[in-house]
User: Fold this.
Amino acid sequence: MVGVIDGFDLSRNNLSGVIPADLCRLEALTHLNLSNNNLTGCLPKEIGNVQTLREILLASNSLEGDIPESIGQLKDLEILNLKGNKFTGNIPETIGNLNRLKHLDLSDNYLSGTIPDSLCDAEKMENVDFSSNRLSGSLPRNLQKLKALQNFDASNNNISGPVSDEFLCTVIL
Assistant:
């Protein structure tokens, strides 16, 4: 009856190797925490099949490669923490599909490209941390759409261009 597990927490251990794709067969999984281990390899693209996930906590490992586009299929996801890994590539555009996402931490990786405009579609977002990556370009045009936003950190990147007046007015008011 492994398929009925809803929480899977093996954080702060000495796990090594890759995240097995079979983990994504746990149909009732709502909370996945494998933070603070020695995991390597890629985040399985099958992660998008676990429609019940509300939290993915994979911080402080050595995971690498692209963040899979399939992450955008997780409509109930509220927390995504991939901090302190070796992820590369762009932040997936599908991040904007995560309508319930409140906390997004992709800091301390090797992500490049721009912050996707689709981020502004995740209107329940409260905390965003993109710090210490290799991001460039300008801030998304519609950041003011994130009405619940309390913290936005994109420090230690190569972001350029203006900050929109609309966003500043939203922050100040």
Notes: Helices lie at 165-172. The longest helix spans residues 165-172. The chain has one domain: 2-172.
